[in-house]
């Protein structure tokens, strides 16, 4: 009985010391902020976000209709060369004046084994401009009503009735031409035959096909592309894997994952470079991961990027059973 009493006293002392330590740390942080203020970079970002969302005034129905008419049209985005680029992105966006949205995204993936694969997303939804920001863009509430994916020869339906916020900017004809920017991606107006706008009009029918099975919960364009990539890697010698890893990140994971993630954030909240240290198994899986040098201002991006990076796969090695620890600079911008 006596030993239990002493143990409880010991736990109480530990808890008290831990609480005292937290109070001291909090006092130091508060004192530093009072003396020096919030770091300028962080303060600027917080103030910018605050200004963007402060005093938002919801559009009335007339203004909503006006903005819909302003951005309505057929828009395209293209990145990469179908004939030679390892990653190709093609997007087709139809915005109607009544708010209905149709979009087809087709990503081409030329994998390390030389094969060419495609990942396709078809979605329909409804966009309602809600308010404007001080710099002239529009915040639009967008509901993805139905969507479907095609990859690895299979077709499945993704999350339905999913709500998103689109930041939309419209530039009228001028020195830069007429452009539409959606979540920091610039779309060009389509000038061809509208009957040929979508690569295959039959794709649009997939969102209403009730016989499709459900996609995995994590399904999106990046997830499907990574699944294809994981099946296409050839083993490399141990001494060559550092170069192979750096090439994989720059050639595939940056455009497939990091570029898409960066579109969600203010550019100031995205790091230029991430210094990472990771250990790979002989099979190419990440078994240990450390990210050094993270800044408070980029924490939201860093947290999601690191979570995804831990699941990345790399070429296996065929000449050893030993794990390999690498230090890699991942260029984000």
Low-confidence stretches: 1-10, 33-38, 42-48
Which structural class should the secondary elements be placed in? alpha+beta
Quick check: average pLDDT? 85
What is the share of helical residues?
A: 25-40%
Evaluate the radius of gyration: 25 Å
The biggest beta sheet, please?
Answer: 8 strands, antiparallel, barrel
Query: Strand share of the residues?
Result: 25-35%
Strand order of the largest sheet: 1-2-3-4-5-7-8-9
Number of helices: 6
Return the string of H and E elements.
HHHEEEEEEEEEEHHEEHE
Shape: globular
**Distance between termini?**
63 Å
Question: Total number of β-strand segments?
Answer: 13
What secondary-structure arrangement, pairings included, does this model have?
Blueprint: H1 2-36, H2 40-53, H3 61-71, E1 73-79, E2 87-95, E3 100-110, E4 116-132, E5 138-151, E6 154-157, E7 162-171, E8 179-182, E9 185-189, E10 213-214, H4 221-230, H5 241-262, E11 273-280, E12 286-292, H6 299-309, E13 324-331
Parallel strand pairs: 6-10
Antiparallel strand pairs: 1-2, 1-9, 2-3, 3-4, 4-5, 5-6, 5-7, 7-8, 8-9, 11-12, 11-13
Helix pairs in contact: 4-5, 5-6
